[in-house]
Amino acid sequence: MTDTRSLPPAPGPARLAMPTVGSSIYYALQSVPWARRAALRNWWQWWHDISSIPYNIQDPGVAEAKLAWWRQEVIDASQGKGTHPLTRALFAQASPTTAPLPIAIWMDQIEGQIQLVHQTRWLDTGVWLHHCDHTTGAAAEGCAVLLGANRPESLQIARQLGVGWRRAHQLARLGQDARAGWVHVPIDMLQAHQVRAHELTKPAPQANPTFHELLDTLVTQAAEPMTTGLAAIRKLDRSERRAMKPLVVLTHLQLALLQEIQLQQDRILHERLLLTPLKKSWISTKVRLGWLR
C-alpha cells in the first residue's frame, strides 16, 4: 500500500475558475439555458474543489479534515447558516423552477472523496464502482436536478452517466495517477487479465499483450453505462430530454475520449490523453444541433 503522504501535489492551483476554457464542462455549459447557468457553474466549481482535495493535499489527516469541514458547511448552508460563497449561492438559488439539491447528493460526494484519501488501491470491482457512483455519479445527479430534470428515471440515468464519466476520466489518466501511487484498476480485474500493478506504476516502453486486453475491457466497461444511458434519455419525454442535453454533451465527449484511448493503447501509461478543444467543440455542436443524441 502506497503512503499517500509521499504523493506529489497536483500541478496548478487548488482552485480554478470553472469552467476552464476548452474543457468538456466549458462546452457542456453552452447547452445550459441561460437562467440555469449560474447554478450549474457553481455546482461544477464545488464539485471540482472537493474532488481535488485528495490529490492536492498530501497529508491524509489534513485532507480528511478539510472534507469534514465541507460536510459541516453543507449542513449549515442547508439551514441558512452557510459561510462559503458556493454553498450559500447554491442553496439560495433554489426556486420554483430550480429544485434544491438533496443533502444526500452532497454527502455522497464528500464521503466518496474521504474514501479516496485513504484508498490508493481498490480490492474489488464492486467497491470501486460504489466509489464511482458516490462521487461523479452523485455529481451528475446534482446536475440533472439543477437542469430541471425532475422525473426519478432521469435522475437515475444521470447517475448512471456519471459512473461512466468517472471510469473514462480515471482511464484517461491511468498512467499519470499510477505513477503517483493511485492505481484505479481493481486488484481482481488486474488478476483476471494477468497484469501486475508495477506494470502501471513503472511501465515498460512497450506494454505486454495482457495489458492491451485489460485496456479493451476497461474501455468497454466505461462505455456501457454511457451508451445505455443515452438510449434511455432518448425514451424520455421532450422536456426531460431538453433538460438532460448538457449531460448528453458530456457523455458524447467522454465516449469520444474512450475511442481515442483505444486508438492510442499503451500511450495512456506514459501520458494523460485529452481531446483537443476543436474536437470537443465539434462534438458539442453536433449535440446542440440534434445530429448526435
Morphology: globular
Kindly state the number of beta strands: 0
Gyration radius (Cα, Å) is 19 Å
Q: If classified by CATH, what would the architecture be?
A: Orthogonal Bundle
Rounded mean pLDDT is: 87
**Helix coverage percent:** 55-70%
SSE string = HHHHHHHHHHHHHHH
**Cα distance, first to last residue?**
43 Å
What do we call the CATH homologous superfamily?
Answer: Farnesyl Diphosphate Synthase
Structural class by sheet pairing and helices? mainly alpha
Flag low-confidence runs: 1-14
Q: What do these coordinates show?
A:
The chain has 293 residues and is mostly helical. The protein has a single domain (26-288), classed as Farnesyl Diphosphate Synthase (Orthogonal Bundle). Helix content is 66%, strand content 0%. The protein has 15 helices and no strands. The protein has helices at 24-29, 34-51, 53-56, 60-78, 85-92, 103-118, 125-146, 152-172, 174-179, 187-192, 198-201, 209-233, 238-243, 245-264, 277-288. The protein is globular and about 55 Å long. Residues 1-14 have low confidence and may be disordered.
Layout of helices and strands, plus pairs?
Blueprint: H1 24-29, H2 34-51, H3 53-56, H4 60-78, H5 85-92, H6 103-118, H7 125-146, H8 152-172, H9 174-179, H10 187-192, H11 198-201, H12 209-233, H13 238-243, H14 245-264, H15 277-288
Helix pairs in contact: 2-5, 2-7, 4-6, 6-7, 7-8, 8-12, 8-14, 12-14, 14-15
